[in-house]
Amino acid sequence: MRLRKKWWAVPEMKENAQVIFNAKNLKGKWNEEFKNNNPINLELGCGKGKFISEIADVNKNINYCILDLDTNAIVYATRKIRDLELLNVRAIPTNIEKIDEIFSENSISRIYINFCNPWPKKRHHKRRLTHPNFLAKYNKLLIEEGEIHFKTDDDDLFKASLEYFNENGFEVILITYDLANFDYPKNIETEYENKFKSLGIKIKFLIAKKK
Questions:
Q1: Is residue 138 a known part of a binding site?
Q2: Total tally of structural domains belonging to the chain
Q3: Residue 190 annotated as binding?
Q4: Residue 36: which domain range?
Q5: 156 is in an annotated binding site
Q6: Residue 42 lies inside a defined structural domain of this protein
Q7: Is the whole model's pTM more than 0.70, yes or no?
Q8: What is the pLDDT of residues 54-98, one digit of tens each?
Q9: Residue 184 included in any domain
Q10: Is 193 annotated as a binding residue?
Q11: Helices marked H in 104-154
């Protein structure tokens, strides 16, 4: 069942200077927005902000942008950003399909895709955030040897995504089918990751590097 829109979400976010509703106006100017020349990383779909708040807090020398059309979720992420005073984060409530209208080519260092919708029906595969249609956009935006970090609980999506990456300008440089039992000390867990782990579901994870 579709959740009812929180009427207060957009008005609240409009009071937050770190939420950007007219992000297209900043294309090619993001370093001016952040007032530095630090690398820019993206998280595509942010849930309620556990991941971005933790990773941005320990990496103050990196700028982060989160993109998510679901205002019911992103509003909680923006609260965390505000309350923790994470000045190196901007939130963009928008459709991820518009990503190339917001960022310039060769301007992004890393992209995080955490537990995106697997879109299991074949006719919906083009909506997957790892589909070749999206990878073509990411490839243009990423700097040389830029990376995509991808997590999912869905076996079919992970298998398909491996093919997508390998056949569309990326090299998979790290892969595990059970992240909880894999030696990766840099891992920061998301809300979904905690939930799936508690249910005994193995988390699949890979890092793909732009060729």
A1: no
A2: 1
A3: yes
A4: 8-210
A5: no
A6: yes
A7: yes
A8: 999 999 999 999 999 999 889 999 999 999 999 999 999 999 999
A9: yes
A10: yes
A11: 132-141
